[in-house]
Amino acid sequence: MRLIFCKILNKLIICKGKITPPILTYINYINNTNWIITNLLLPSHLQIKITMKPQKINKTNVARLLDKAKIEYELIPYEVDESDLGAQHIADQLGEDINQVFKTLVLRGDRNGLFVCVIPGNCEVNLKYAAKVSGNKSAEMIAMKELLPLTGYIRGGCCPIGMKKPYPTFFHSTATNFPYIYVSAGVRGLQLKISPQKLIDYVGAEITELF
Is the Cβ–Cβ distance between 151 and 106 less than 8 Å? Predict the structure, then answer.
């Protein structure tokens, strides 16, 4: 059972005629359909638990493609910080190891054009390695303004699944060290939790060293 400490703003919890302030409250995550809230200011014999359903998660095109392929996955929401779209923020929100939160980068080679690299969120792609594995002499990151027209995705929501065209894709070798990894589900605020091998097989990617 995962324990998440938080504040519940502008709400009061009423228990046996007593009103408690909306602070020092924790949420026990039970499953995808139920959370149980308990207020820490109450003595144990007065504690109550409130079961509530979380907000419905709308499926993205990425999820629909995986459904069609009958590949198991989970959609995990997180709070977006427009001033910090980095993977570390996402890992902190998810309570997961940053090495399991992967980012999707789009590069351009001098010979073979566009290709995709998927690497741990706290790492930087080595352009020489990327060029070599993609059959290029040199490679560079595409400009940010090119991301949407080339892939259909924006920064912070780029996914190796469902791009406008099926570009050659390369995963850093550490992806297969874990039973599951996270990549963007195609929009900001939503991560895809999935078996790395199933993801790699689905996009036809190559496992290699990228840094």
Answer: yes
